[in-house]
Write a structure and sequence with these properties.
- A two-stranded antiparallel sheet has the order 1-2. It has a two-stranded antiparallel ribbon with strand order 3-4.
- The chain contains nine helices and four strands.
- Helix 2 packs antiparallel against helix 6.
- The termini are far apart.
- By secondary structure, the chain is mainly α.
Length: 224
């Protein structure tokens, strides 16, 4: 199946394929391929194995990676017997992981990482942003800010977008923690030790910060 045919099918599933959210959803669907009955697919065409293999540049017999894949599938434990020592050592790791996640874990990971790399290259070629704007509500205060989209790469212009958003995110955070009942502020060091911090310290940190996020799951933690 050609790449053109594949993308035509995926576009029929979702006309917003070539957007930040569209590519992110595509990769998320790829991760969930093992759970077809428990996941609602944005791109049901992926359930056709030829479509998925084509995204990994496999399936037409012309790619050298197919020989690696064939060997893994035919002999999961012995495929790397003639490989260098460091490859054999890595294979032990995947063999152990396979015992936890199933015998096809190594193959699934190989395929997904190949698909992800290809999608990320497509994202870069088309100049599709790797960040999206999320909307949150904490302590009844609404806010929107850019965040890195999972599994996509961050373009140069994305880094600037993220850095420019830092002051507004810091101001939002400070407004939240000062609401009554006020939260205590801490800086956490590399040893995960908490040190009391002032609002001024948080504001000063913003000048050296390149990315900031508000973790909304923390808003109802117990005060300490």
């Amino acid at each position: 199946m050609s790449k053109l045919e594949v993308f035509q099918l995926l576009l029929q599933d979702n006309p917003d394929l070539f957007t930040t959210q569209g590519l992110s959803s595509l990769l998320h669907d790829c991760i969930c391929l093992k759970y077809p009955k428990r996941h609602k697919f944005t791109y049901p065409s992926l359930l056709n194995q030829q479509v998925y293999l084509s995204l990994a540049n496999l399936g037409d017999g012309s790619n050298e990676d197919e020989e690696i894949l064939r060997r893994i599938l035919s002999d999961p434990k012995g495929w790397c017997l003639d490989a260098p020592a460091e490859v054999k050592e890595g294979a032990k790791f995947y063999d152990n992981m396979g015992k936890m996640f199933g015998p096809s874990f190594g193959t699934d990971l190989f395929l997904y990482r190949t698909v992800r790399d290809n999608i990320q290259q497509l994202q870069k070629n088309l100049g599709i942003s790797g960040v999206r704007v999320i909307n949150i509500s904490v302590r009844d205060r609404l806010f929107s800010y850019p965040t890195v989209e999972d599994q996509l790469i961050t373009l140069d212009e994305d880094r600037l977008t993220l850095q420019q958003a830092v002051p507004e995110i810091i101001n939002y955070f400070i407004s939240l923690v000062q609401m009554q009942p006020a939260y205590k502020l801490f800086l956490v060091d590399e040893k995960e030790q908490k040190n009391s911090a002032s609002v001024t310290a948080v504001e000063n940190a913003a000048s050296k910060t390149v990315i900031a996020e508000v973790y909304t799951e923390s808003y109802n933690w117990e005060l300490t």
